[in-house]
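Translate sequence into structure tokens.
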Amino acid sequence: MLFSYNAITNTGEKKQGNIEAISSDGAISSLQRRGLIVVSIEEDKGNQSFLSLTFFESVPMKALVIMSRQISTLFEAQVSAQKAFTMLATNTENPMLNGILNKVAEDIQAGTSISNALGKYPETFSEFYVNMIRVGEESGKLKEVFSYLADYLDRQYELTSKTKNALIYPAFVIGIFFLVMTLMFVFIVPKLALMIKESGQVIPVYTKVVIFISDMLVHYGIFILIALVIGVFYVFRLTRTDTGKNYLDRMKISTPVVKNIFTKLYLSRIADNLDTMLSAGVPLVRSLEITSAVVGNRIYSDILLNATEDVKAGGALSVALAKHSEIPQMMSQMIKVGEETGSIGNILKTLGHFYNREAKESVDTMVTLIEPVMIVFLGLGVGLLLASILMPIYNIAGGVA
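Result follows.
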């Protein structure tokens, strides 16, 4: 969600701009961490247009993976930060990333730190990414941090793209199926229905249903199409609201079949984020706050924010997470072992790899089952339609004979 803000610095300088966050409270917290005093903040409605260019223009995660890997290599070769970003801007193929990297290079040349320069583009560089860079600057390990980020983003990209591809295939096939069926109901069934009605025979109930659907599409198809377009637009707008986003995120982790994939995806992301940030020296509380902002699901984001408050109050992370049914018992127990042995980083790394592997296996299992299930579904649909029309025609032919 994009917010427009007006703020002032500690020196009284006025600042205004846009920031990406899951809520207004999250946006205010992010701005306050930058040392800004928020005067006003409101959701940027203008950027939610369906035809907005920002809806189509974005920097793909794959480009960020390549960029992070290249920066790590350039730093290892002792190339200055300003020159490294200038070189990357020249070689990148994504026009949006090209413009951002050029501006980042200019900011660095003007004396701005890398983290602050990247932080001006929250829609491209997440709070997690920027904070990791800040840690690298403070510890003098920028090369290692960019390498960590490249590995992390690579894992997330592989898993996310695999999940999306698995869901796109059945959606495409089912969409084509309904298109073909609609064309049959509109152009073929009416002609056959006329023949059946003129025969004077008793029409079976299932055939009447098919004829009724065909008549509705022929006579009221345009109104049905308009209603569908309005419905899709309404659902799209609803998913842009807090209520709609909460409902959609809840559906992802509660709908049969896909819930295993999404749940393990988010658990993998949580463990991976925390491991990466703790390994870089980021405090636990700050790691939880940042992870809550980038996990990608509001349900898990709220869980992490609640856990953050418990940890601030002196509680253990394992106990804080165990309060929520969305967190598997195994995960909280393993974190407890890590807390007791002082090896929570290794435990989180193990959990990240485990849930990453589990999510991949869930995707592979779903892909394996999709094809036979779709064949049965499509076969039943076509079979019922043909049987409803051809059986009466067969009876007519038999009567004529």
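Note: The chain has 16 helices and three strands.
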